[in-house]
Design a protein that fits this description.
The protein is α+β, with helices and mostly antiparallel strands and about 120 residues long. The chain has a domain of about 80 residues: mini-chromosome maintenance (MCM) complex, domain 2. The chain has two helices and seven strands; from the N terminus they run H-E-E-E-E-E-H-E-E. The strands form two sheets. Strands 2-1-7-6 form a four-stranded antiparallel β-sheet, with no helix packed on it. Strands 3-4-5 form a three-stranded antiparallel β-sheet. The longest helix has 22 residues. It is elongated, with a radius of gyration of 20 Å.
């Protein structure tokens, strides 16, 4: 590795460190609604009000709990229960899907950060 290679790597690292707060500032958007979609239709509820909702899916009922600005599936009748393992979500655009049951839960929020997807 030559001296020029080291300089290029250092410049890239500095630019990345300086731009990180600017890119991460989009993650601070506030979530305000939960959109629940199932075979019986679409319902939108506020994320700020703690409540328990039972949504009828194709295989049976899915129980959702909205609490402390998050939503999670607490009980589902699907075979693998992957939707329960997703845990609580609160970021705008986050989705919980109970695919065998035909139920999806999406967090809505104000503003857009321009990202098509977020991977963790």
């Amino acid at each position: 590795m030559t001296r020029a290679d080291r300089i290029v790597i250092a410049v890239i690292a500095v630019v990345a460190l300086i731009s990180w707060p600017i890119v991460a500032s989009g993650a601070g958007r506030s979530a305000d609604t939960v959109t629940i979609t199932g075979p019986m239709g679409v319902t939108t509820v506020p994320l700020s009000r703690d409540a328990v909702y039972d949504v009828e899916g194709t295989l049976g009922s899915v129980r959702l709990r909205v609490a402390d600005g998050t939503v999670r599936v607490v009980d589902a009748v699907c075979p693998d229960r992957i939707c329960e393992l997703t845990g609580a979500v609160s970021a705008p655009g986050a989705v919980i899907a109970c695919v065998p049951n035909g139920v999806t839960v999406r967090i809505g929020g104000s503003g857009r950060d321009g990202l098509d997807a977020r991977v963790r």
